[in-house]
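Hey, quick one: can you model this chain's 3D structure?
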Amino acid sequence: MATIKSIKGGIKADIHIANAIEYITKQEKTKGLVSTFNCYGDKKNIIAQFQYTRQIFGKDKGVLVHHYCHSFSPDDDVTPEQVHKLTLDLMQKIAGNDFQYVIATHSDKDHIHSHIVINSVNMLTGKKWIDNQTTINAMRLESDRLCIENNLSIVKEPCKKGMDFTTYQMAMQGKSWKVNLVRDLDEVLKNCTIQNEFIKLLEEKEYSVKFTGKNITVSIGQKKIRLTTLAKEFGEKYSSKSIFSQLGIKYDETIKTEKEKTTSSRNKKHKENNQKSQWQKA
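Sure thing. Here's the predicted structure for all 282 residues.
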């Protein structure tokens, strides 16, 4: 079985990036199983290329790179080369083509594992990589899918924050409409900047979208969910509030639906009439 974990919550200094790359690429650990994506050369060149991308977008502060470990059980009948390819396939699916990263597979211990050092900024969009539970969940799902494809074991009862086991099982079978919705939202949000585009792109994927007050509701067929509810399983990125922000729509916690406004107005009028009645009695 394979596991994914984030190491130390991100690296914030170039010296620590250098140390990480030097450690993960040691010949005695990797036996040469090192791959780079959108970067090349020795650690000094890779650090410079990472830095250049961050500086272009003015995001060369805070977390500079993220470090993950993709580890396999000693009971798994896998070779270092297989593990390396599985990690490459994993990152291709999760990170796409626009991030820079280094993958190094270690075979010096009983459990073969790959280290992943990924730059924090997307080369094309300038958006930052978010290292949170949603990202870990996505990496874990994809890792498990790859393991199943390659006849390897997976964790039987995964403990994913927010994601119930039924959703997880359906996702592994490619039948979870919520997981499909999350993936479609990721794709749509990369390609739109305004509300009308967001609705149009989702409708092209056969979803219906409804903006009501502070909420966005998405439905497909007989299935329907508020994005605020979806966010409880897959992370704040998918909440109505977050998507309002991404679409440039002002989100005010005090906004009320038309029904709430009408009810409030009636209550206020009733209170005024009651006060007037009491004054007249006096």
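One thing worth noting: The longest strand covers residues 65-72.
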